[in-house]
Amino acid sequence: MIIHYKNAIIKYTTSVYEPSEDSYLLAEAALSEIKGSERVLEVGCGSGIISAVIKANTKAAITGIDINPYAAACTKENGVDVIIGDLLSCIKGKFDIIIFNPPYLQDIKEKIAGDKITKNWINVALDGGDDGRRIIYRFLEEAGSRLVENGRVLMVVSSLTGIDEVSSKMRSLNYIVGEKCQERFMFEQLAVLSGTKRGGV
Predict the structure, then answer these.
(1) Domain range spanning residue 104?
(2) Which of 25, 83, 137, 154 has its CA at a distance of 20 to 30 angstroms from the CA of residue 194?
């Protein structure tokens, strides 16, 4: 399957999260945030749509990372350097911006149709645990040490997960929190939160 979006051509398969409203919202927010040749990391890059759009429209040095080997292969095919790994555990160096479209739905196991491979990897892309925030909190705790001073995280959060709760967690980890954009899609409100690293993160 192929998508044409923002000067990029993105291919994806059934074993990879299909680009959706949250993908496009985060892509738009990223384009508005990136300045010059910043170092950017996309965690959970999936098909690579956001990274490919960044590469096609900015001078940023972009790298993707995903735990799903099918997603990593898809991102690579879409022209983006990619690493297979679990969140930030295998990353070295620091970045100006770290982007994340996290699994944020509450326990969704057994609700995804498809063959075993597709079902398992799509569950990984969607399932945020009992409250939808388990992976988000892990990411936030790891990201601070991978940001330059005044580096930023950009992350999609859903009202189903709790936008205020995630914002509060970010502040407790000493991020300066802002909201880049917010939009309602059917049964949920999606927001892109920004968190700027400051001393002590």
Answers:
(1) 2-197
(2) 83
For residue 74, give Cα distances in angstroms to 34, 141, 173: 23, 28, 33
Please count the structural domains in the chain.
1
Check which CATH number belongs to the domain holding 144 and give it. Answer: 3.40.50.150
In terms of DSSP bridges, do strands 39-43 and 81-84 run parallel, antiparallel, or are they unpaired?
unpaired
DSSP β-bridge partners for residue 65: 43, 83
pLDDT of residue 185: 78
This prediction's pTM: 0.87
* Nearby residues of 150 by Cβ (< 8 Å), 6 or more positions away: 196, 197, 198
